[in-house]
Amino acid sequence: MTDLMKNGNPDQIPDEPANRDLAKPSDKKELSFDEKVEALDRFIHFEPLIREVDYKTLLFCETRRNLSDIEEAMASFPEFKGATRDQFALVTELVDHYGLAFFELDAEGRVVTEADKDGLTENEVDDLVVGFAYETTEVGRAVAERLDPHRRFAELVEAAPEREPLYRALLNLLRVKRTFAEVDSYVRGSEGAMVLAQAGVGGMQPSVFVDKLERAGVLFYDGGWQATEAGIEVLDGVRAAA
Amino acid sequence: MTITKVSAETMRTLCDILEDRADFYLMLAGFYFKPLTQDQIDALAEQDYTAYIEGDSLIDEGFDDIRRVLRKRHTGTRRILATEWTSTFGGAEAYKGRYCVPNASVFLDKSGSTYGWPRNAASRIYREHSLRLQGNSGMPESHLSFELEFLATLSREAAACLRSGDTAEAAALLVDSQTFIRESVLSWFPALRDLALRMLKTRFYRGVLRITEGYLDLDLETLEDVLAELGGAPICPAETTEAAA
User: Which keywords does the record carry (chain B) (predicted)?
Assistant: First the structure.
């Protein structure tokens, strides 16, 4: 769905993303939409420490946002504490991997196009562009849909339905922050073992369950393991309003 | 012939000029020594650059470059500037086989070595003024940051000499400064500037180069003016006491 259709105004010309003048390999071919989705999905999954930060940023930027607002929002994500680079680097990576569109803005908040810069000196261009904004692309929206924790948890359960009771038991345990030692004890202890026996599984390390739930976006680590907001929603069978 | 005394007010003005010179050279030295910290970037962003916006000197243009970069700073600014510094002045990258480490030896010694004859020359000059690098400096004496710091040191020493009434020594230090600027800094700084401009991607360090070049040229004029004020004029002993207080 293009911006034109979404806005319902076929006369409205979509804002042109700014030319980042990035050095790109001359032989780099233009990817199809699906290839871009796969590329962005692969990139986001490549580094677990920034996966959830990237996902939440794609959600946050579904409405065009100023850079400073994005930086502030990202800093508030619990997962950002484990990020290995600054917010601007992460946002730029999402632009480079087709997830976000980048816009330069003038003093009135209007998008500055390359045509607007024609004939201007370096200083005049610098005075014209006073801010930066980003908006999630259709590629970004498609990947964000894949990364919805509800969907990821459902896929986790679908892959191994017998584990669902223990997944839910762990999420319930982690409504409050706990150490891994507490998680380990629970899984190996009588209550956890009973859940395992009921589920018909055994022999898996507790860390595997924690890892799978973290990758599904329903657990996070911040000095201890804890269910995310989405994890609580999954547990309670509710879903936050979009 | 009428002998003109240097007034106490003039002496104070000259001392202020020399102290300001020292501060400015130390600021410049810091730009080339290592990447800026976030605190340094924030402090620079808080400075008032109004005086430089309309001017057209190299110094004005340089500070305007810095102002324009810092007014749009964001969470990635420190990293971008650090990368820029490391790539160019840190020697992490080369341009057609040439490295842009701000070291006179790299630019003047035919072999391009770090500890060539320019380093020995700088070391000798420092020794003549009873100065040497601290043991853990990690860089040679001919590095631009140390050469600029040397000029700052001479300037403070000259101010101290003026306050104590020793105009002859102060003048000698300032003449040495002129010679050092011409022979030990400006002999290679244009080559550094030309190579750096081929490598730098942001305006910030382009501005630093402009400020440095502009200030070195201006300082030669400033030193001429200060030496003219000091030239052959004795100081009134009472005013010496006042100036030294």
Answer: Chaperone
